[in-house]
Amino acid sequence: MTAEPPMMPKPPQRGLTLLELLVGLAITALLMGSLVAMLVSASAAGDDGSERRDLQTQAQFALRRMALRIRQTPNALLPPKSDDASSGTWLAPATYDLRSGTVAGTLALTETIAATGKVLAEPVSSFSITSPTVTAGRTLIAVRITLARGNSRASASLVARMGGAR
Q1: Total structural domains within the chain
Q2: In whole angstroms, what is the distance from residue 115 CA to residue 56 CA?
Q3: Going by C-beta distance under 8 Å and a sequence separation of 6 or more, which residues neighbour residue 48?
Q4: Cβ-count burial of 161 within 10 angstroms (0-12 exposed, 13-18 middle, 19+ buried)?
């Protein structure tokens, strides 16, 4: 009988087996998938917030400009006008009304003075200018504007007295 040589111990395993590598990749893919979805939704929310701030800024700009014009217009009893979406002759020489916007199918709030029109806000979904009452001898004018783009909306309003401070 010949003696078998003693068994040599196996050297310690170095590296990963194919199975361990595949399991690691699968776990990483699951984690990355949920992170990507979270980043996409956070980005969309940031875009919506930015869009809403832009619309709010435009609305505030338009109202500040109109408030200045209202206060500069001498106090008077206002003649009736055909609709609430135009200032008519109330704030002459300026008129404020809705016109076709630069993007097809949108409306823009425009200020026209001496046949020169300037866009104050766009895209406008609603605009109204009314005179609710006369208080302390001064005519009040109320203005309301709503802008909308995609899922973002912004509304603003003001009430100012003709011919003087608020």
Answers
A1: 1
A2: 28
A3: 150, 151, 152
A4: buried
**8-state DSSP, 122:** S
- How many alpha carbons fall within 13 Å on the CB side of residue 111? 18
SS (H, E, C) 147-166: EEECCEEEEEEEEEECCCCC
Residue 166 has pLDDT above 50, yes or no: no
Query: What are the tokens at 149?
Result: 């783009």
pTM, entire model: 0.72
Q: Which of 15-29, 116-130, 132-146 has the highest mean pLDDT?
A: 116-130
Q: How far apart are the first and last CA of the chain?
A: 117
Residue 13 lies in a domain: no
Least confident residue range of 16-20, 54-58, 63-67, 154-158? 16-20
Can you give the residue range of the structural domain that contains 29?
Answer: 18-161
